[in-house]
Each structure stands twice: as structure tokens, then as C-alpha cells.
Amino acid sequence: MTVTGSFRSLAKKKLPSYLLHKPTGQARVRIDGRDHYLGEFGSDQSRIRYGTLIAKLAGGQLIDPVAPAKSGSTHKKSGSTTSAEVDSGPSVSELCLTFHRFAETHYVKNGVQTSEVHILRSVIRPLRELYGMIPAKDFGPLALKAVRARMVELGWARTTVNAAMSRIRRIFKRAVEDELIEPSVLQKLQAVSPLLAGRTEAHDNAPRHAVGPEDIEAVRGLVSPIVRDLIDVQRLTGARSGELLMLTTAMIDRRGEVWKAALVDHKCQHHGQSRTLHFGPQAQLILAKYLSADPGHPLFKIIRTAYCRAITRACEKAGIDRWVPHQLRHTAADAVRQQFGLEHTQSVLGHSKANMSEHYAKAGSIKAAEVALKIG
User: Fold this and answer.
1) What is the separation of C-alpha 359 from the centre of its chain, rounded to a whole number of angstroms?
2) How far is it, in rounded angstroms, from Cα 157 to Cα 96?
3) What is the fold of 1-67+89-205?
């Protein structure tokens, strides 16, 4: 079997599981109908042996069914150094733990951890499951491909898997930076190419599109007032849900016909871009219901995941295709593009490049205010 063929077969069927052989208490894995015994179930040795076999399987290498599991030490003559006494360096799990601790303080905005920390936990899980116990210096391209195959098996989308591979390399890059491993380990991992569209068993998510008025109304009738109001404001302004959920009374400048909210924390802040939301008469009527005497009080008492979950559950109840809050930006973009053109769409959505607005709609504050006054 070729290496390419082996990966196709891995993608089509499940990776062999780490199992318990009850009569002997040993761990085992069944490959091509044959059991391979790995040592004491749950032991570091058995998990290292399991990861090694999976890497060989992913690489199309022959697996010797009678090869003994490698023990952690090889005894030599008296007075000589055993391999157990040689420092093999940190394990993959230790690298993951070190990076996770770094991420908890690095990926923070306004004192709150970003979603990157949660995503990293999901990426680390299959990595540790297969190779957590092996020395990080021994984690190579075949092992990375085996982890990738596990993610495909779990149903992850192609782009999600590719992003996960980048995050794993980021873990090893940080370890190189901290001199925990040699740069050659990372260099080998960088040789693994991304999954290409149409050339992998991993599926691609359908492109997001604008939500039609019928589907919006179907959901509006099944959600709470706060979710309904958020849907309406998002549709009118083209704002991201996170941008609306961070709003406080103090942030909204209510002078003039169009209200404005200059965001100090937004998606493209690290690129040096500014972001200001504009609220026309219709949006103002909704926001007015949530203004508080406490200037620092959030307008909408709901978290982003709950807002999204409320909409997707309502879609299921209504029997319509599922849509998420971010698609309302596409809806707003379509409406602005039809009435005003690309430059106004770019201003409303906060894009620095016109091609991003084209993406949302198959510059400047003045244009955004003009749109808000007429349709927002």
C-alpha cells in the first residue's frame, strides 16, 4: 500500500481504538483484524506503543505483529548508563500544558479570555489522545498526519482541520522559542501540507449567505424579546454580534440624527483599524429600551453563544435551514449594496478592502451615517 493510499483508507474508516484486553489487563489495538498487545492498560508505555503503531499505519509502514513493545529502559552492563536515565525531554502533553498556560494569559481582551483558548482545548484533545505520552522530540510528520486523520474521522471540516494543524505547529514553535525542543522538530512538522479541497475525505462547510426575510421572521416568532431585538439591530446595522453585545450606555453618542458607538475593542483592532457603529431611527428605538442609568452597564444581558444557540434551536423548531447571527451581516450587506453601492457597504461593515465587502454582498463615517439614516 502506498503512503497516499494509506491515508485515503484511514480517512474512509475509523482509526483503530486503544482497547482493554480484560483477561490479561493489557492494552491492545486491532489493526487489519490482528490484535497488537501494548503493555499494561493505561500505562505510559502502552500509550507510547499505541501512538507509534498509529503513526506507522498512517505512514503506510509495515507493522510487525510479533514486535515487542518497547520498554522505557534497556539495561546494559553494570556501571553503564541505561536509556531510562537519559533525559528524553518534555513529552507532547507537557508541551500542550505549557502552551495552554501561556494561552490563558495571552489570548485575553479586556480581562476576558477569547474563544482561541476554547479552540485550543479542542485541538489539543486528539493530539494528547494519540501522542501525549511520547517525547516531543519524537513527534514527526507521520504522527501529525495521524492526528489529522483522527480529526477528519471526528467530522471536522477541512478548513477547521488545516487551522488545527497550524495551531499544533504553534505549540511546537513556542517550545522552540522557550528552548524546550530543537528547531529541527518544528521544521519537520512544517513539511506537512494542508488538506486540499476535493482531494480529501474531509468535508467543506457550505459558504455562508444572506438570510432571507421569511427565515428571519420564522425565527423571530420563536425567540425571546432580547434575541429578537438583537436580530433586528444586527440586520439594520450589519454589526457583528460580539460588537453589539459589548455595547454599554456610555459608549453610545446620542447626539445628532444618527447615534454612534466608537469601539475600542474589535476584530481588526490589532491591524490599527478603527470601528464605529451607526444607528438610524429604527435601531435607536430598539436600543432606547436597553439604555441604563449605569453608564458601564451592558445593554444586552446575553452571551454570544447563548444568542447563537437560541437562533439555531428556533431554526430547528421552525423546520428551516439553520442559520447563525453572523449571516445577518450578509443580509445587511445585500440591502446596502442594492441601495447605495460597494463603497457604502464597505463603510457599514467596517472593511478596509472592497473585496471583503464584495464577499459579504454578492468609506468612511459619512457614508455609514447616510445608510443608517435611511435604512437603519
Assistant:
1) 21
2) 23
3) DNA polymerase; domain 1 (1.10.150)
